[in-house]
Amino acid sequence: MPRFHYQASNPQGETVSGNHQAEDAVQVRDYLRTQHLFPISVTEEKEAAWNWGKGRWSLSERVIWMQQLAAALEARLPLLEALGILVQQSAEASQARKVTQAIYSAVQGGQPLDYALNEYSRYFDRMTITVVRSGIESGKLPQFLTDLAKDWEAQQILRQKVMAAMLYPALVGGVSLLMTTGLLFYLTPTLENLFAKRWDQLPWITRFMVALGKILREYGWVLLLMIGGFIAWLPRLLKRPGVQVKLQQLILKTPWVGVLSVGLDSARMANTLGILVASGIPLLKAIVIARPAVKLFTLSDALGRIHERVQQGGSLGRAFKEENLFPSTLVHWIESGERSGELADRLKQAAKQLQMDAERRIMVFTSILEPILILGTGCIVLVLVLSILLPMTSIQQLVK
Question: Residue 333, Cβ neighbours under 10 Å: how many?
């Protein structure tokens, strides 16, 4: 849906500005009139086709933004003043400043904070909006913002740990690929010229390597174009629902990756439910809101069935247990929370434990992957060395 930037006049005669998503400018003007604002100008925002990273607001920046907003409100600063401080602290021409300025203008124009955040659903999901709304209604907005910041920070830390764990295997694999490609490009022509007269007498491994190098030299550009085209087409392919379902089915059937994916998704869902329940959201509504946080379709469908069982009067722990899809750790923590009346805290504890378990699995996986990649690199080098030494040994035998 298009996003429009507007300027309007409030009943006090002050000019306010902000952003709003709508089908067209007419809907924006109608929306402004419902907010008791007189439209001055409404223009559609156009995004450049190639912005090369501009207009991004990273998760780490949003974590700091949320922490600063929570700290300012805990210091009993008015919301508008707190947002004004965030605007001043943001870098010039950054997306953070642009979004914060728009939120500031919307709040200044009389909109509640949750409505202002909802205009930027790209950065603030439905759970965030709901928790903020609950915080406003209960008068505990700083506390709820702190909980949201902790949730975002946990996601950021996990993402950084995964990237750090995969960095070394990626470097080893990349260096191996470059080394093998370089040798095939520059070494095999020498072998071909050296043994041209004895081609039929060469070992099969030497002929194979020479032929492979020749194919790479003559058709390497075609291969690069095919790889580039596939990489460019892959995001569109992965957006198709049918492809996503099949890919997730493959992931779940993969022995180690499937368990890890279920654990990470369950941790995200449990933490989301914990935050929502702690903020006073009814359990049934919290399940509905938390469902989009689940990325795996299998678990999302299961959460829908759990909602139906709880709606019919069943307990949450029993509903999770009957699905037989979620980790037993999560089920035990939920049952404990229902017995003790501290469901929100138990859900957060379950999420923390599941996340720690996922981190351990990632570390084990990378520790196994590293020697496998090194061994694979050694095998490639061995094949290249054999392709050189074997024909030389054959020539020496012929000379003798």
Answer: 26
